[in-house]
Amino acid sequence: MRKIIHIDMDCFYAAVEVKHRPELKGKPLGIGGPPNSRSVLCTASYEARKFGVRSAMPSSQAVRLCPQLILIPPHFDLYKAESRKVREILERFTNKIEPLSLDEAYLDVTECEQFGGSATLIAQEIRRLIFTELHLTASAGVAPNKFLAKIASDWKKPNGQFVVRPQDVESFVKDLPVEKIFGVGKVTAQKMHELGLRTCGDIQKYTVFELHHWFGSRAQELYDFARGEDQRPVITEWERKSLTVEETFARDLQSLEECRKQIPGLYEDFRRRLEKGEYQDRIKGLVVKLKFFDFKQTTHEEVTHEIPTIADFERLLEKAWNRRASPVRLVGLGVRLGAQKKSEPEDNSPQLKFAI
């Protein structure tokens, strides 16, 4: 039986800002751009969330909900530095760590002998060290697998911990809403509701064959998750599949020529990241992405193994634009990457992976 911990930092970006600027403590904070831009919030403090402010919300809407909201532009270098400190604490207990983002990670502590091998006590100690050494708080979920551990970490937020023991799995998952199942978004959830499936217990009433009729290749996965079963390992190595850079504009770009003028600046950032990551030998395609004024988007891709030039991206941009020729709010460009060569191991550092 595996012992999996999911560590989730509480309002990480906002908490880091407060740590370095104590005068902000207790005030409603939003990490994002000004309200007169198209910026969306990376996160919001708990004081702001009381007003309905949340991550991924446009800054303009957040300010309407909470007029006293203090908007702070993100300082990712600072967040990465704090994230590395969290990572160092996690590594005191296991090297089986799967980062999900700067502020959360899975740990497999099955073989950890500290605290008598108790995952519950290990999680408590991790949270204590994060608080005493870094002056930040974290929530934790402890369970026999990743699916349940992630759900559990959200059970007693903020600064809490919840444990799903193996003998409690059946009763724990029975009444879980289908929205809690990994990979079930709004569209799938709506379809489930129309079929009368609102909880994991409802899904348990059906066979894999019946679920396949409704959900195709996802049937087995849904069947397992609904029973609290998840065999996914904690993945300690990560390989980048693509490298892209994007920019969202404060004003819609009205013409192909306006879009074309954005390519050189994006290309400079792209080349810098490409060379820093040493991905040149792994290129297998290039791509241009356009997101239009109504949030609909299109991409145009082309196979290549060469480092693309500005002219290459301009050519793809024109093809993407001609599909619709409508005002554009976002332009992105980049490359698809093939598998890394065994003789050239990839740098999986937090800086590249944006991970704790």
Task: Give the helix/strand layout.
Blueprint: E1 4-9, H1 12-20, E2 29-31, E3 43-44, H2 46-49, H3 59-65, E4 70-72, H4 76-90, E5 97-101, E6 104-108, H5 119-134, E7 138-143, H6 146-153, E8 161-163, H7 169-174, H8 186-194, H9 200-203, H10 208-215, H11 219-225, E9 242-253, H12 256-260, H13 263-277, E10 283-292, E11 297-303, H14 310-322, E12 328-337, H15 350-353
Helix pairs in contact: 4-5, 10-11
Description:
Helix 4 (76-90) packs across helix 5 (119-134). The strands form three sheets. Strands 5-6-1-7-8 form a five-stranded mixed β-sheet. The protein is built from 15 helices and twelve strands. It has 356 residues and is α+β, with helices and mostly antiparallel strands. Residues 343-356 have low confidence and may be disordered. It is globular, with a radius of gyration of 23 Å. The chain has helices spanning 12-20, 46-49, 59-65, 76-90, 119-134, 146-153, 169-174, 186-194, 200-203, 208-215, 219-225, 256-260, 263-277, 310-322, 350-353; strands spanning 4-9, 29-31, 43-44, 70-72, 97-101, 104-108, 138-143, 161-163, 242-253, 283-292, 297-303, 328-337. It folds into three domains: 1-164, Reverse transcriptase/Diguanylate cyclase domain (Alpha-Beta Plaits, 2-Layer Sandwich); 183-225, DNA polymerase, domain 1 (Orthogonal Bundle), CATH 1.10.150.20; 242-339, Dna Ligase, domain 1 (2-Layer Sandwich). The longest helix has 16 residues, at 119-134.
